[in-house]
Amino acid sequence: MNYTAGIDVGSTYTKAVILDETYNILGRSITNTGFKLEEAADRTLGEALKAAGMNQADINYIVATGFGRHQVSFRDANVTDLTASSHGASLLFPNTRTILDVGGQTMKALRLGDNKMVKSFRLNDKCAAGTGAFLEKTARYMGYSTEEIGPLAATSKEIVPISGVCAVFAESEVINHLSQGASPADIMHGAIDSLVGRSMQLMKRVRMQPEFTLIGGILRFESMARVIREYLKSDVNVPEGDMVQFTTALGAAVLGHRRLEKLRHEGALAKV
Q: How many helices (H) and strands (E) does the chain have?
């Protein structure tokens, strides 16, 4: 039995997944990335290995992805997060054609071709108003934690529009709405609606096609997926529980097994 590890070094969190050759997840872990990227990768992999009851020597191939992938010196290979996300989403939902990935610092839309490869993509990584960080900042300003975003928005009775085109202006709108007596729940609903509106722009630019798969840390809040469904007027795939955060790391581990298969095939041909 061969085992691979996928490590996704993101700007906010680092995730690791241990995968066997039948694509069963044996262990996984998530930690804060911080500013020492290799240490974060090493620490997260160690915790995933502990969860799997394994040692690093048991791993046949390690693939790093994410913005900090080049800092992982113990990797066997690295791939872009776009490539890793496409393989992770396709493993979980084989008919995926469009992926929306909403993270803390970036938002990405990808359209896949018939071969599961990325055919078109667009990124929003220039303004915090178009990322999950805006929702987290809005929640903190109103006195709520990140984990309270979903439950808070679920109690909303109506949407308070947040139309600011950048995080600074949007924050000013939040302050103004609070001063006028708007409820935090309705303001949070409005912030989610604003973020979803931006995501729809990215998806249109990649010429989105169903099936739609949503990944990224912000998608662990069901309110986000619900608003996206309303915009699309279509059902969407969302990995269960916290797997929305591990999909890219999962894809990196899948690619590790495919790389091993290729190496075995090349070795067999060399012996002919």
A: 8, 9
